[in-house]
Amino acid sequence: xxxxxxxxxxxxxxxxxxxxxxxxLAMIVYKxxxxxxxxxxxxxxxxxxxxxxxxxxxxxxxAFCFLxxxxxxxxxxxxxxxxxxxxxxxxxxxxxxxxxxQTYVLKADVIINAVLLFTYGLESVLKVIAxxxxx
Length: 135
Description:
80% of the residues lie in helices and 3% in strands. By secondary structure, the chain is mostly helical. The chain has a two-stranded antiparallel ribbon.
């Protein structure tokens, strides 16, 4: 009953998030050097990026853990996938923050956040289908 497309998407999303984190961090540093980035907003933007990284690690480790073997999808357990789905909501909110509400939004921010939101949406649909199949 486990979903192969979902498992592949977990892996791809894990790799993409590493790129996303590094690109967003580099863009925040770039914006702080090139633009007059208010000091009051630089700290919160960086803090939210690191909070998002922690959520992403939790989210993916509940669904697919590289070190301890697979959970959720491969063991056909609803609870880890459901909790991962709930954490995805927090990640989506933070991604929307970086897409819309951060101090400066570059075109590159729009592109990488749109891809991330698309993968979150696709992953969420596949999680709901997998949970329904497990039940």
